[in-house]
Amino acid sequence: MRTLITRLNALRKKCRMTPEQADNIRFPCC
């Protein structure tokens, strides 16, 4: 789980997005 959290944090910092947007990108809604 730590790997996923660190990866999400890295993406969040890279794209400067909010956690909600990061979740939407990680798990797109159809």
Topology record:
Layout: H1 2-15, H2 19-26
**How many DSSP-defined strands?**
0
Distance between the termini: 25 Å
Order of helices and strands: HH
Which percent band covers the strand fraction? Answer: under 5%
> Radius of gyration, rounded?
9 Å
Tally of discrete structural domains: 1
Q: Tally the helices: what do you get?
A: 2
Query: Segments where pLDDT lies below 50 for 5+ residues?
Result: none
Q: Structural class of the helices, strands and pairings?
A: mainly alpha
User: Globular, elongated, flat, extended or rod-shaped: what is the shape?
Assistant: flat
Mean pLDDT: 70
Helical amount: over 70%
Query: Largest sheet, described in full?
Result: none
Highlighted features:
30 residues; mainly alpha
Give an overview in words.
- This protein has 30 residues and is mainly alpha-helical.
- It has one domain.
- It has two helices and no strands.
- The protein has helices spanning 2-15, 19-26.
- The longest helix has 14 residues, at 2-15.
- 0% of the residues are buried.
- The mean pLDDT is 70.
